[in-house]
Amino acid sequence: MSADAALREAWGRIPSPGTADTAFERFTGKRMERILATVVAIGSAILGAQALISAIGGMTDRTSGVQILLLVVVYVPLVGMLIACAIGRGVRVTGGAFAIVYVVALATWPFVLESDGAKENQPWIFFLVNVGVVAALLAFPIWAQLVWALGVPLVYGYVRLVEGEFTATFWTTTAFDVSFTIILGLVIIALGWMFRSVAAGVDDARGKAVASYASAAAAAAAEEERVAMAALMHDSVLAALLAAERADSDRARDLAVAMAREALTRLANTEAAVAQEGSDDPVGTALIVAELRRALSELGADAIVEERGSAGLIPGKAARAIVLAARQAIGNAIAHAQGRGLHIVAEGNGDEGVTVTVIDTGPGFDMATIGEDRLGIRASILARMAAVAGHATIDSDSTGTRVVLGWERT
């Protein structure tokens, strides 16, 4: 793959600054997940440090290599989870890994424990019971979180009874510890569910508000365009058609052509405050490129404007039409394709003409589905280029849209 191809492929994956992603970003939900991960990291680090101190302090000459291996097996995923929570990446994977590894390690504890009877002090692994529950909070769906909140304390209770050889003293203390751990785990799960539900509600409400505003703005714009087009059709286009029908001399035909050009220009400039063709003084390709870059800046987009071919001069009206039509194509790419892969190429052919191509890698569209009263393409691009004897082609599919605008001297 060439450098230019690699650059274009990378550019196509980056949305233009200031534009939203296709799916409405769940900002509050992401922020809440970040907060939960941070709180879990702090609490887990404290409990993990306590357990590590207890494990190191309880080591003796009789400590087996299996017990040391178990310590490593538990703490490697725990440290991985803490790092993931700190950097905000891979939290679900590392949290799920620790939750599963910890339950397995806890269940195997009686098989690696070397004891001549009941122990008065809890081993280090029991300090991490609630850490296993909060790891499930980060990684699993709500039903699995409840399973962990209930199951891990019960596994802990069973292991503790096995360690104490099921003596009466251990039944009482273990029942208290298990019930307390279950209640604490359920409270943690409930708080996590509540915070996530509130964040999801905020995101949904904001998404509905934005969608409602966008729908109202689109409806208002469509109505404004419909009224503008109706007035224009009555005042200019209809008059040009009548003049063309009644033309019976060269002068009348020339007048009808001029009226048609003016009507097409006004149709293309319907969205502008002042509809005018502008000066017909010759304009160079460099000025067209500069205007395109200025249009990108005004629209808040960041894209490449590439200049190719040989510089030359073309009529000012044609240059103005190309710039305005390209501006409309750029606006469409930003509005409907989120500016993905936006790339503009201006290719000059000396004094013979110029071609401007606007490319994006958005989802594309179907021209047949665009309403007849929509001016964004039919008027602002196609009619505008026709008014200066130029040409415009639009190719769009699921891989993107390519708008080619050109003017050639005849």
Can you walk me through this structure?
Mean pLDDT is 78; it is low at 14-24 and 272-277. 31% of the residues are buried. This protein starts with a helix and ends with a strand. The chain is of the alpha+beta class. α2 (27-57) runs antiparallel to α8 (168-246) and α3 runs antiparallel to α4. The strands form two sheets. It has a five-stranded mixed β-sheet with strand order 2-4-5-7-6. The chain has twelve helices and seven strands. It has helices at residues 3-12, 27-57, 65-87, 91-107, 109-112, 129-139, 142-163, 168-246, 250-268, 285-299, 316-337, 375-387, and strands at residues 283-284, 304-310, 313-314, 343-349, 353-360, 391-397, 400-408. It is elongated and about 120 Å long. β4 and β5 form a beta hairpin. The longest helix is centred in the middle third of the chain and has 79 residues, at 168-246. 65% of the residues lie in helices and 10% in strands. It folds into two domains: 18-206, no CATH class; 278-408, Histidine kinase-like ATPase, C-terminal domain (Heat Shock Protein 90, 2-Layer Sandwich). This is Histidine kinase.
